[in-house]
Amino acid sequence: MPKIGVVVLTMGDRPAELGALLASVAAQEGDPATVVVLGQGVKLPPLPDGVDSVELPENLGIPGGRNAGVAWLRERGGVDVVVVLDDDGLLPRTDTFRLIREAFAGNPRLGVAGFRIADETGASQRRHVPRLGGKNPLVSGPVTTFLGGGHAIRMSVIDQVGDFPAQFFYAHEETDFAWRALDAGWDIDYRADMVLQHPRTEASRHAVYYRNTGRNRVWLAKRHLPAVLVPVYLATWAAYTLVRRPPPSGLAAWWAGFFEGVRVACPPRRPMRWRTVWRMTRLGRPPVI
């Protein structure tokens, strides 16, 4: 069965939640996973026995921190599947790692398994369901992206398609990775039975949310879409942002980020194949929405 490695990033400000998460990881059935906690430019609190620690010299952002965790696991060796978990999350079930092992062993083309994010009541926010409209959070199935808070990636997929885009720092790095994985022929599944319990929050709580969302949407399109789809994708997201009516300060930050993305390059540009566009369309999420 595949061997699991776990990556947890922390800013050091949630020691109680981190401790609870690590306890839930240790409680998983089957062989113990290799676990590493990375401090994003902070000193880490004491960690349980069997959990390794890495104190990064600075905050590398979410994708950069994940890349550092994957590099550590790769150097350690013996890891087939990388599981990434938010430091304020919790695995409420003890069979999640067994489900992960079975999923990747049973489907050689499975590249990513995305978890269902649920709050303490078991409810999932619409933004946490990777389908248009946030439909059917309790139904598993193939999707075109996954959630950063809880997911599992086959290590060989990372070796093939590359790391998360460190330049993004925060926002849409999972979609960037997902599009590359789909274009390489891998499957992405949303698994409602793989649950990460997470406090109910709003993405806009992050100070860089609006600016990075606007910028990284442009970078995502410029990096991966066929040229004819780039303006369609960006126009769709601009219209969607206006319809959602963010606060004036948020809208100003979003447009600043949008034009930064237009102005600043984020190489490399590797447009996906039209076959991948059609595949995403059949999965219910054409890359213009």
From TrEMBL:
The keyword Glycosyltransferase applies. Belongs to the glycosyltransferase 2 family. Pfam families: Glycos_transf_2 (PF00535). Residues 18-142 form the Glycosyltransferase 2-like domain. The keyword Transferase applies. It comes from the Bacteria. This is Glycosyltransferase. SUPFAM superfamilies: Nucleotide-diphospho-sugar transferases. Pathway: Cell wall biogenesis; cell wall polysaccharide biosynthesis. InterPro entries: Glyco_trans_2-like, Nucleotide-diphossugar_trans. Keywords: Glycosyltransferase, Transferase.
